Amino acid sequence: xxxxxxxxxxxxxxxxxxxxxxxxxxxxxxxxxxxxxxxxxxxxxxxxxxxxxxxxxxxxxxxxxxxxxxxxxxxxxxxxxxxxxxxxxxxxxxxxxxxxxxxxxxxxxxxxxxxxxxxxxxxxxxxxxxxxxxxxxxxxxxxxxxxxxxxxxxxxxxxxxxxxxxxxxxxxxxxxxxxxxxxxxxxxxxxxxxxxxxxxxxxxxxxxxxxxxxxxxxxxxxxxxxxxxxxxxxxxxxxxxxxxxxxxxxxxxxxxxxxxxxxxxxxxxxxxxxxxxxxxxxxxxxxxxxxxxxxxxxxxxxxxxxxxxxx
Amino acid sequence: xxxxxxxxxxxxxxxxxxxxxxxxxxxxxxxxxxxxxxxxxxxxxxxxxxxxxxxxxxxxxxxxxxxxxxxxxxxxxxxxxxxxxxxxxxxxxxxxxxxxxxxxxxxxxxxxxxxxxxxxxxxxxxxxxxxxxxxxxxxxxxxxxxxxxxxxxxxxxxxxxxxxxxxxxxxxxxxxxxxxxxxxxxxxxxxxxxxxxxxxxxxxxxxxxxxxxxxxxxxxxxxxxxxxxxxxxxxxxxxxxxxxxxxxxxxxxxxxxxxxxxxxxxxxxxxxxxxxxxxxxxxxxxxxxxxxxxxxxxxxxxxxxxxxxxxxxxxxxxxxxxxxxxxxxxxxxxxxxxxxxxxxxxxxxxxxxxxxxxxxxxxxxxxxxxxxxxxxxxxxxxxxxxxxxxxxxxxxxxxxxxxxxxxxxxxxxxxxxxxxxxxxxxxxxxxxxxxxxxxxxxxxxxxxxxxxxxxxxxxxxxxxxxx
Lengths: 311, 467
Prior knowledge:
The complex is a heterodimer of chains A (311) and B (467).
Chain A: H1 2-23, E1 46-49, E2 52-55, H2 56-71, H3 110-119, H4 134-144, H5 150-153, H6 170-182, H7 186-189, H8 231-240, H9 256-269, H10 276-283
Chain B: H1 18-28, H2 41-47, H3 51-54, E1 55-57, E2 60-61, H4 63-70, E3 92-96, E4 98-109, E5 116-126, E6 129-138, E7 141-149, E8 155-164, E9 174-180, E10 222-230, E11 236-244, E12 259-270, E13 276-288, E14 294-295, E15 298-299, E16 308-320, E17 325-336, H5 338-341, E18 372-385, E19 388-401, E20 414-423, E21 432-444, E22 454-466
Antiparallel strand pairs in B: 1-2, 3-6, 3-22, 4-5, 4-22, 6-7, 7-8, 8-9, 9-10, 10-11, 11-12, 12-13, 13-16, 14-15, 16-17, 17-18, 18-19, 19-20, 20-21, 21-22
């Protein structure tokens, strides 16, 4: 009986071993894995999100599991899905990021990247990865830094300061509309914010890929912008720009209060969205009055310390 | 329809003969019992995500995959509604597994010698076929349709349901109607194990020896309606389902008015570098008939009355020890009414002797008691990387009270051990392919033809593919 049991276990382990031998030729690596690998050893990049410290090594497996299909094994935005994606996935090798709290042209903070992973990117294939733990996200932030030497040579920019939002008034909305015209936002976003301005069809990103301006009119109560959903997020987009796209930074062009007025106006373009801006507009009869410039108004000057400028 | 399990269900009171025969039948028809899996490359193709995004090792879900499922097969982005898909896109996945296996059993009834003999059979075989179709019909309205065939090509509908999600813009209001898997986050449909002796969870189907209640199998898809709710990040999950006590069979073949319910809740929390942990519990309670009208001695389907109760409750947990190692823990305390224990209940399919069909208000056999049991399993996955996973499961079921005191106290107790590995030579967002190697061993006390222990083991090497 004992011999019978031993025989059975020998058979079992023999078969498992045989199976293992079968797969060894398939995998010439010690850890069977697909695709090209980043240079070894991994750069010891870190990220710091509050009290959580992320390590590149910890993010390697999650990157290959969740991210590499689009962003590529080498982080160059050339994953197997890339040809079918619009917009194209981010190329981490050039370290240009759309959603930042830092001035245009600078590296984002770790928190910016952490937020982008958890928020996802609307109007793209980038999902909301809020099922990750904070540690997972922090590790992924550290991991994507291995792809560009910029992270070793430069520090992240200083986050811009966002002043308190002034009250929404019909005057601020009117001023925002005037700025929308003056700054020629309509050329891309269209006069009604539908993303159908005269330049819209000609826009390309920094990798010469066609890119569409945001269509404000499609906004609903649960809609998001590419870099967030709050008024502060829209403000940040004006002042930091969306790097890698034609959307410039207006930090050198307009005052913080001007930016807030623009935010208030843009919210009214989201005609299907319940918002305090649309409430104010409705109370004013549903029509934005012409903006009359006050004689005492000084020319706009940058005041938030942001570097870089509009394009 | 995928690999099957060794069912613990037994028939009537013919413990010594019928049960081993039934068990062996299932062992050698190892693929006839369904265990459809839910890995859908069609979803990967739709969203451009690798299988590994939603599956720790397909078909087992990651947290992200669980959230995708809980949102009604939606990523909750702009690509969810089918209007955004290429018109040529069809959300269809086919899954099947050709394999070689060795199936061994220590005792089967034979006509020669002592009347019992051991048997070991080797050979090439096929699993059943799953045709998995699912996706959104419109934003927040989705469906799942899974026609499954056994290895001979005999089809049935394993899953057919329509979901309505995020009602009133709330992730807490999601409803599905049809035939569906009960909402345990430890899913037998998504287990990595495939072999005949270890493919399924015993506790998901456990029925004591001589028990007539086939209805309490929480591993079988059920026909009914389910409410599900979850937090935005899916850390908190709740569900409640009401379904017909038919064990998922169509045309209401059993009771006139027999229903069961399943409740589940779980909470996930971050444990720093260890990962996200999840703990929860479930309860399945219900009633099922024990008496049927007959015509020429044959029970009339749908005529069952004299409902009796049953329950299954337990804990479930998913614990990560870093990015490579996780443990699934599942426990169960089960109880059937004494009528079921005495094998009254399912005389429609012959589980119980048609003679066990008392008139309403009949007398329970003397000494009959509620059979009760406890059980647990621990399933471990060592994920070397998303392409290579080593797994094991150890499962134990122990009777705490038999239906009759004269029955051996350990009659029907189960020990089941499985280990193996699964290797995906490539990992893309287009198809799934895995080399699967597994060994499993199961023993059930006192159920061999000579009333001794019955044990079986399986070795399988297969190529599991889904496209």
